[in-house]
Amino acid sequence: MSRCKVRAHANIALSKYWGKSDLALNLPAVPSVSMTLDGLVTETEVRFDTRLRTDRVFLDGRRASAAERQRVVEVLDQVRSAAGHLQRAEVRSANHFPTAAGLASSASGFAALAAAATRAAELDWDDKRVSALARQASASAARSVFGGFVELPAGKPGQASLAARPLHDERYWDLRIVVAETAKGPKKVGSTAGMERSRRTSPYYEAWVAAAPKLSAQVKRGLKLRDLPLLGAAMEQSTLAFHACAMASAPGILYFQPATLAALATVRDLRDRRGVEVFATMDAGPHVKALCHVDDVGRVRRALTRTEGVIATGVSAPGPGVEILEWD
Ligand code: ADP
Question: Could you tell me if the CB of 293 is within 6 A of ligand 1?
């Protein structure tokens, strides 16, 4: 028997991942760059036990649904196959997200699972291998293995070892993300289904895949130079380009809500009329995430809180990679 408990943090993509180059291996067709977020935390404990006859999975204190359990078992199966044993596991995971998050739970969830399961199985894997394992469950999870600012390159079909890599640690640049939550409830079209529909039907899919590497490179250059306007311009174009690609699918995929546009207008107004260096991004959902300097975070948050339709706001700083809490 062996047990490991870890903590992982969610991340927000500054240049976006949308589209897969290999469905079976879950490889992204475009490179992405993210910031790992403090505060948005998943804690996962994995315990392998010879007495268990089947894997037991609990999420937030309840038994996981069949679909949720299946995604976890697929990761455990890979770990068992690498470790050369067949022990079943009990997995207990909790997502500690503030209500204003509206952020990816799969990123921190599968980063935590991959890290806890490999250690509990006594596999001596480095972060890169853990990241590649997490990536197969959720591409954004590959990035959450590392702290600070992280890149996940595009994958070539068949490239099973593709992993994220850290660019700068969490102390590198004191930026903030202000999340403006604009709607309640789960998204209507999941990311995997949305990406596939875009690839098969959107006339803009190839244009998006062709444009994404340049935008990702500009985000990296902005990070390297600590130049927020350089980074922010590419970040906004990246998000609007992937949404344009998704919208042009058949049938169209529209994640925007009225409050999404209102929050985008607030960000532009702060920038154009008040001279605040603040830039927006959205994932495959209606929430708006504004990136700004730490000194401007109060102004940005107040403006977004006052924006019509915004339900709640939250603030995140750059956060650390996976942390081992207990291991025996
Ligand atoms: P999100 O935007 O929250 O990542 P997804 O639909 O991509 O939304 O992923 C949510 C799914 O990720 C859940 O339905 C569940 O299967 C899985 N998940 C979320 N949190 C965890 C966790 N802590 N441990 C294992 N799986 C998780």
Answer: no
